[in-house]
Task: structure prediction
Amino acid sequence: MKLPTKVTDELERYNQNYKTMKASRSLHFHPQGGSVDLDLEFDSGRCVSFTVPPDLAAIILHFDGDKDEWSLDELSRELELPMSHLRRRVHVWQTHSVLVEVATDRYKVDQNGPLFSGNKVLNGHLSMSNYIFSFSCKEYLSLTFYCYLVSTGYGGQSRGGRRG
Result:
């Protein structure tokens, strides 16, 4: 899976800051690992929070920006995901009323949004690291983007040797 440029730029910036703080160390991010906390605010005024795997977050991130609608083929090329996997993942957003199919295999943000509010966890909460994004949906999804890594362990400790 290929993460959107906005995400990879923020992760690289975080890595550079980390290398400044921890000389001779760097971070290697795994795009399939972790989870993403999304706050989606729709035109209806409803705000819904989701905790999702990175592939679901990457899909919804593409609906912000220059294009209001995406075909599965376009998303598949952009995200470098197999069509069968992408179809299942887009269906998750569709069943939660975040995306709506406007033509065969063509989707856009449902302007009304989900009928529930609060927090919804989709596909469980994965461990290791969390990527946190914040979205605001004024017209479709106008994006306010924050990305940072939340440490969930290891705390910079070395894995071998004794600590003094």
